[in-house]
Specification:
The protein is of the alpha+beta class. The chain has 3 helices and 13 strands. The chain has helices at 2-22, 89-96, 193-216; strands at 27-38, 51-55, 60-64, 69-79, 83-84, 111-119, 123-133, 136-137, 145-149, 152-156, 160-166, 169-171, 175-187. Helix 1 (2-22) runs antiparallel to helix 3 (193-216).
Length: 217
């Protein structure tokens, strides 16, 4: 009799765990804002690269099931430099002429994208880019400046996970390029195992109590 009772309780607990996983609710995302953080090498001064950064993120809410992706605009980057200096006068004179003489415009070009959430976690997620600028005139057949963002995996709740992936930007001429953000829900959070174990323990206790009562009658 005892073995049958334990088997029944174990089966019930397993069923509850399976149902909790299968019936995991869609995840609500609340995006509150976005911005760029940039290095000191950007600007219009001597030895700075003329690049402007503008956030296009608007506050928004959406719901994702596991495997789904939501896309939206993140920002706009504008390259205004007509010739990128190396800081070597002879090289810059040869590549850019007298108008290109100046300090090195290829260093301190870090870029970090920041995306703020209220849900499914209250945090600002940062995506750090690999960047580079190539010495010489802009508006040629070669890439002159690039921003390459790496996907960021974010964990939340009990087993929840999503990936933030921002669009890369490659410039071979002056002008503006916009990029987007993709959020993909890769894992849905599940109920805490402790709550399932507590429920199973309650079933076991109830069964043993009923068995004890039946013996005393």
């Amino acid at each position: 009799m005892r073995s049958k009772l334990l088997a029944t309780v174990a089966a019930a607990a397993m069923s509850i765990a399976t149902m909790a996983t299968a019936m995991a609710a869609p995840v609500v995302f609340d995006v509150t804002g976005g911005s760029f953080t940039t290095g000191s090498g950007y600007g219009k001064g001597n030895g700075q690269l003329d690049v402007a950064f503008t956030s296009l993120v608007t506050p928004q809410s959406f719901t994702l099931d596991q495997g789904q992706t939501q896309s939206f605009l993140f920002g706009r980057v504008t390259l205004g430099e007509t010739c990128i200096n190396s800081g070597n006068g002879l090289v810059d004179l040869a590549l850019c002429g007298f108008s290109g003489l100046g300090g090195n415009e290829t260093d301190n070009l870090g870029v970090t994208a920041n995306l703020s959430f209220a849900n499914p976690l209250a945090a600002t997620i940062q995506s750090v880019a690999i960047t580079g600028a190539f010495v010489g005139p802009v508006n040629d057949i070669f890439d002159d400046y690039f921003i390459n963002f790496r996907p960021v995996t974010v964990n939340f709740g009990n087993g929840g996970e999503f990936v933030l992936d921002l669009g890369d930007l490659f410039f071979d001429r002056v002008g503006s390029i916009t990029n987007g953000a993709n959020i993909t829900l890769t894992a849905t959070p599940v109920p805490e195992p402790a709550s399932l174990a507590l429920f199973a323990s309650g079933l076991l206790g109830l069964g043993l109590m009923r068995r004890s009562r039946s013996r005393s009658i």
